[in-house]
Amino acid sequence: MTQSPIGLAILGSTGSIGRQTLEVVQSLPGRFNIIALSAGGNVTLLEEQARAFKPSMVYATRQDDYVRDTLVGRGRARWAEMEEMAADPRVDIVVLATVGAAGLGPALAALRAGKAVALANKEVLVMAGQILVEEARQNGGELRPIDSEHSAIWQCLWGESNDAIERIILTASGGPFRDTPVEELSRVTAEEALRHPNWEMGKKVTVDSATLLNKGLECIEARWLFDVPLERIDVVLHRESIVHSMVEFRDGSIKAQLGVPDMRLPIQCALTYPERLVGAAVPKLDLKLMPTLTFGVPSLRKYRCLSLALQAGRKGGTYPAVLAAADEVAVQHFLSGYIRFTDIANALDDALSAHDGVTDPKLNDLLAADAWARTFAEDWVKTKA
Amino acid sequence: MTQSPIGLAILGSTGSIGRQTLEVVQSLPGRFNIIALSAGGNVTLLEEQARAFKPSMVYATRQDDYVRDTLVGRGRARWAEMEEMAADPRVDIVVLATVGAAGLGPALAALRAGKAVALANKEVLVMAGQILVEEARQNGGELRPIDSEHSAIWQCLWGESNDAIERIILTASGGPFRDTPVEELSRVTAEEALRHPNWEMGKKVTVDSATLLNKGLECIEARWLFDVPLERIDVVLHRESIVHSMVEFRDGSIKAQLGVPDMRLPIQCALTYPERLVGAAVPKLDLKLMPTLTFGVPSLRKYRCLSLALQAGRKGGTYPAVLAAADEVAVQHFLSGYIRFTDIANALDDALSAHDGVTDPKLNDLLAADAWARTFAEDWVKTKA
């Protein structure tokens, strides 16, 4: 390799996406230089990663003396805030694999510094899409999707002009309850919700895939990533998760991106763009053994969270932030067994109805809406539980 | 529209592709200027087209006094050979919708003059792929596919680098006999062979779609259009003809192009590239009504012509020219009822076995091989009939 290594900051390195990002990095020796790693509470794994990848900076949400000492004590790395990591001159790409609103500050810092942000933390874009897109535009920063759906759309758009897009078609597997009658949804357990048929993911996003709230967030995300109004974004059920998403162009042509469901492929695309490399050992789709591919329309009666998300997206302003924040709280309590699966939609519905939205919100308005929604959802759960 | 109209020469304007090309031209008013039209024997339609599109030059294979008088007599157009049309300075794109070897001279003339050649006449590329590609490379000419499969591959490669291609996957509907047991193929009629389940096409290509010889020719065509060795080109059966073809990249990602089976879309792509325009009224694929998509492996025992084509393609030299020429003759005689459907493969097999191939053939060698194969096939049919 002739070019110098690409500097990476991986925020959220101990989660599912963070770990797979490091797998991709390992599969392409010499190509990347890990400048910074940050984690939440899993400091044991962070320490392991720091030993293997020798970042210059580390951060963990949990930061007692023991943690600081273990991670930075022996002069191996310096403790730094995520915003500092994101803006560091040695960093070319910031992988944002954090969960929830915590990624917002670092995302803005990275874009302001003109970095490419490889985005797995969709809540950030749902919450503050307009602000992020604006920041990127003004400072030469760039948003690259890591979600398999958005990576599919992105790949379909390489070499195409944005104004040729007629429609974006997001595929949805339908999650573990796609064959469960709507009447039975109130009785499903967290354990059942976590059994996703096609993808291995973190818990929160797996539950969001079961409610299809995730797909609604993805519609909002697509709206900002590809500058396409929500009216031109469709969701189709596609059980097999082989077609990761599609773009219809105005001449009637449709492009789709296909592959084995494996997050290492979209991660690698975001890191190596515009190159395609033989990298992580992603299993290849054997077209001769390819299953029958099916497509259908999701029922909005069954998938109420999808409907609510589209509603919030259309209303815009602070509503998407409320949606995402209330969902984080509700899913947490569903996983702990405090509320029922169907209560997630009930909580979101009530939060969106109770919220007094702000049009053209500033960052402060969004953070206030986020905080308001969390409190609202916590209270909502308390009265239910 | 601010740019000046694109000059077109449509060679083979009265055939299926030629007529649809003129439909596309009509659907995009002001965008194209028809400089030249050529036809075979259907001079009545050619006259109609000449009246509607006012070309400066016309040509018909049939050229008795009456034809010449009708077409050029009133000073509306000048009679010109196809090579002259192809090289005319007012022509930007030559649409090659001729059938068989007749398109070879005009194709070379166009590429030598640095034109874009929108290629529907696949035999030309099968016969003389290397020479055409070389001519294009040396003179800044360009080959654009019109076949739906190759257009799909081409579209999937926009914005991609050629060395990222791992594999090209051509889809095949399987034709009208896909559910016919191999033992019954010797008894099928021309009428049955012409009933293609998904596409409306000319007779010759419809029979070639029934034998899958067409798909074999397409593999050879893809080899030259996209500079990918035959070993990296696969054929999968896909009954629905919705996925028009796919490209697998070396990172494991697959891109597919989908749409309603309608040749006006690939024609329009070839004419408007790199733009996508709302043009011909191509029906849109309704994803919510999208059928189940199936994929399978074609049986080489059943589809012997596919196997023979791949053999000829691997041997290279003059063998593909022999294959294409012998097939033209054999299909003609099958359509006239002189030989059986399965005799097409028998004739090709015998022709390829009897042929004494030339490696690194010059144009003369290819034309000689073409002539040899036609004579061989005619004789073969005579001894059978």
List keywords for this structure.
about 375 residues, alpha/beta, homodimer, globular, Rossmann fold, 11 strands, 3 domains, seven-stranded parallel β-sheet, four-stranded mixed β-sheet
Report on the structure:
The structure is a homodimer of 385-residue chains. In chain A, the strands form 2 sheets. In chain A, strands 4-3-2-1-5-6-7 form a 7-stranded parallel β-sheet, with helices on both faces. In chain A, strands 9-8-10-11 form a 4-stranded mixed β-sheet, covered by helices on one side. Chain A has helices at residues 16-27, 43-53, 65-72, 82-87, 104-112, 122-139, 148-157, 190-193, 203-211, 213-225, 264-272, 304-315, 319-335, 341-354, 363-384, and strands at residues 6-11, 32-39, 57-60, 78-79, 93-96, 116-119, 142-145, 165-172, 233-237, 243-249, 254-258. Chain A starts with 5 loop residues before the first strand and ends with a helix. Chain A contains 15 helices and 11 strands. With 385 residues, chain A is of the alpha/beta class. The first copy, chain A, folds into 3 domains: 6-145, Rossmann fold, CATH 3.40.50.720; 148-263 and 270-314, no CATH class; 316-385, Rna Polymerase Sigma Factor, Chain: A, CATH 1.10.1740.10. Chains A and B meet through helix 7, strand 10, strand 11 and helix 11 of A and helix 7, strand 10, strand 11 and helix 11 of B. Strand 11 (254-258) of chain A pairs antiparallel with strand 11 of chain B.
